[in-house]
């Protein structure tokens, strides 16, 4: 603070207090946001300072009708509390929160008290939380206003982490179970949404004997909103169970049946149709938790979802197909998932993009022979009439694709695709493919003839008359240095990228600077005299973009400009 501690405390605090009552919410929001850093400054200057006036302003902001102001005030309160010792928290904060709890006329005050106890639990620590928070929690469960009971349920998550499993089981769990049978559906909905959170902090026995039957209770609730909340929590809830699950447990079999029934519903109602979207999204978590042994029960459901009329359902499955394949393994995937994979490739673009994005991961699960039959997919996706974004997705994983095929397939099928991608007419496609070329080079390790052919083609780009080709070489160089062997890099990249420092085109010197920075991070080249000398040469370049890349302190622009910069001479490849 430029005006010093004394004037800050005597002049600014009254001003902030007045502004906290300003009719303009923007002003009140600014006050709430600034209180945290302002108070931290005051505490650091004088740790014995009386903070009551600050907290008066802060609690005024906490009770503001504007949610943005209230949220900002909570953040400020936590930042202040982190600097206070347990003694001052007990002396200043706890009494104020108790006043809020005891306000029988303002339900918002009681709800705020719950929120603060939850948010402050990590700062208060286990001892203060057990001493001041746990004894009063039952009062909230008996509150006559259901919104307060809802606030209690939704504010429990921090308490679980602080007090641990024993106190969660003995104190919080009974309160949670009590509210889960509340007559107001909104309270039950909040409990259903919290079941996965509390499940992570109780024993396996409690999880199976108490929470699993409770989940069934939520899933058959008279309120559709409670059922929807239970479904939303289903994936995280089952993930909280240890693996492997017993195959003969009645509760788990009920969970499987519940999931399958929801996924197979034919109800045309909009809300119920969302169930299938949730089921598709949660399917990998369900399969991962229950294991391959439950696949015979889940397979009809999965196949049904893959044929669902809603494209959102099919899209979710398409994006997670590789995860399901990894769980099921080679044999089952080839029999049950490959037909679905082929169907998705012919689906809408919104669905197709999911399998294309993770194509390498899915194909890596299949056997080599089966994998080879899908190289046509890559070729088809490169055809110009198709969405160029598909080519971009292939470009991002072409190195990974090369690594999962044998030498012959790489030579005959993958390499033409590589050359096509790095010369694609769309710059974003080229930019996606270039960082993958290093992996392609590594994949040819046992085929020295093809590897040398590729390296020589790349090397020739460095002497091309086209500056675009030289840019491509520099981009490949930047990523290859961390992937290929030092010997290959020295023989095919180093000399050429060093010469780029003297290129007449400024854009080439810019990408050369970027590449050499990556080269200098390689332990083998970090002390290479030629590399260091060339970087030093570039640091004296006359082009501002080169200097910005190297972050030279006397560069014309060595900061984030507050006004638009003049057009850069750089061209992205």
TrEMBL record:
HEAT repeat extents: 12-50, 54-91, 93-132, 133-170, 172-210, 298-334, 414-452
GO molecular function, one term: protein phosphatase regulator activity
Signal sequence coordinates: none
Pfam families hit by this protein: HEAT
Gene3D superfamilies assigned to the protein according to its UniProt record, in alphabetical order: Leucine-rich Repeat Variant (1.25.10.10)
Any one of the GO CC terms: cytoplasm
Keywords: Repeat
InterPro entries for this protein: ARM-like, ARM-type_fold, HEAT, HEAT_type_2, PP2A_Regulatory_Subunit_A
PANTHER family registered for this protein in UniProt: SERINE/THREONINE-PROTEIN PHOSPHATASE PP2A 65 KDA REGULATORY SUBUNIT, SERINE_THREONINE-PROTEIN PHOSPHATASE 4 REGULATORY SUBUNIT 1
Name used for this protein in its record: TOG domain-containing protein
Organism whose genome encodes this protein: Arcella intermedia
């Amino acid at each position: 603070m430029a005006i010093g501690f004394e004037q800050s405390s005597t002049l600014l605090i009254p001003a902030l207090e007045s502004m906290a009552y300003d009719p303009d919410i923007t002003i009140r929001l600014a006050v709430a946001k600034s209180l945290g850093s302002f108070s931290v400054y005051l505490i650091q200057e004088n740790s014995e300072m009386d903070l009551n006036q600050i907290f008066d302003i802060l609690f005024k902001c906490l009770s503001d009708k504007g949610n943005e102001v209230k949220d900002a005030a909570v953040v400020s309160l936590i930042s202040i509390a982190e600097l206070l010792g347990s003694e001052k928290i007990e002396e200043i904060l706890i009494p104020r929160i108790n006043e809020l709890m005891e306000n029988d006329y303002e339900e918002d005050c009681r709800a705020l008290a719950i929120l603060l106890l939850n948010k402050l639990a990590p700062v208060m620590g286990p001892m203060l939380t057990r001493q001041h928070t746990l004894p009063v929690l039952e009062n909230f469960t008996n509150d006559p206003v259901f919104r307060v009971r809802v606030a209690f349920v939704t504010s429990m998550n921090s308490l679980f982490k602080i007090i641990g499993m024993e106190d969660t089981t003995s104190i919080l769990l009974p309160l949670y179970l009590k509210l889960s049978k509340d007559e107001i559906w909104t309270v039950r909905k909040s409990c259903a949404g919290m079941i996965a959170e509390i499940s992570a902090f109780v024993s396996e026995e409690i999880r199976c004997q108490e929470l699993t039957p409770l989940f069934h209770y939520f899933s058959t609730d008279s309120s559709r909103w409670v059922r929807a909340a239970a479904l939303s929590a289903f994936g995280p809830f089952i993930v909280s169970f240890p693996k492997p699950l017993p195959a003969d447990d009645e509760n788990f079999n009920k969970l499987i049946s519940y999931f399958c029934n929801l996924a197979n519903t034919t109800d045309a109602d909009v809300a119920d149709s969302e169930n299938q979207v949730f089921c598709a999204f949660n399917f990998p978590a369900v399969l991962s938790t229950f294991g391959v042994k439950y696949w015979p029960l889940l397979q009809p459901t999965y196949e049904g979802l893959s044929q669902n009329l809603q494209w959102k359902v099919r899209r979710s499955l398409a994006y997670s197909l590789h995860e399901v394949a990894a769980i099921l393994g080679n044999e089952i995937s080839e029999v049950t998932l490959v037909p679905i994979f082929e169907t998705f490739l012919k689906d809408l673009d919104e669905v197709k993009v999911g399998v294309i994005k993770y194509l390498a991961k899915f194909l890596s699960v299949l056997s080599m022979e089966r994998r080879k039959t899908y190289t046509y997919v890559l070729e088809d996706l490169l055809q110009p009439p198709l969405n160029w974004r598909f080519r971009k997705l292939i470009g991002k994983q072409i190195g990974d694709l090369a690594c999962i095929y044998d030498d012959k397939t790489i030579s005959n099928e993958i390499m033409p695709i590589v050359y096509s991608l790095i010369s694609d007419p769309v710059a974003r496609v080229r930019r996606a493919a270039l960082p993958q070329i290093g992996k392609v080079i590594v994949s040819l390790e046992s085929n020295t003839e093809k590897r040398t052919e590729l390296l020589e083609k790349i090397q020739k780009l460095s002497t091309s008359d086209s500056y675009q080709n030289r840019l491509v070489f520099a981009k490949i160089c930047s990523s290859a240095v961390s992937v290929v062997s030092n010997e290959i890099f020295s023989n095919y990249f180093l000399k050429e990228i060093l010469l780029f420092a003297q290129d007449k085109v400024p854009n080439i010197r810019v990408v050369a600077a970027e590449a050499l920075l990556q080269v200098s991070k390689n332990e083998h080249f970090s002390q290479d005299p030629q590399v260091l000398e060339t970087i030093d040469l570039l640091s004296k370049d006359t082009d501002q973009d080169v200097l910005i890349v190297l972050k030279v302190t006397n560069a014309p622009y060595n900061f984030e400009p507050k006004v638009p910069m003049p057009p850069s001479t750089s061209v992205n490849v």
